[in-house]
Amino acid sequence: MTSEITKDLIGKVYVVTGANSGIGFSAVSNFASRGAKVVMVCRNIDLGSEALDKIRSKTNNNGLELFIADFSALASVSRVAKEILEKYPRIDVLCNNAGGANGARRITAEGFETTFSVNHLAGFLLTQKLLPALERAGEIHSARVVFTSSYGHTNSPLDFDDLNLEHGYTTLKAYGRSKLMNLLTARELQLRYGDKNIVSSSFHPGAVRTPIWRKGGLVAVLLSFVLYPFMWNVEKGAETFIWLASSEDDTARNPNGDYYFDRKLGSAAPFATKEAAEQLWLISEELTHPFI
Question: What is the rounded average pLDDT for all residues in the chain?
Answer without folding.
Answer: 91
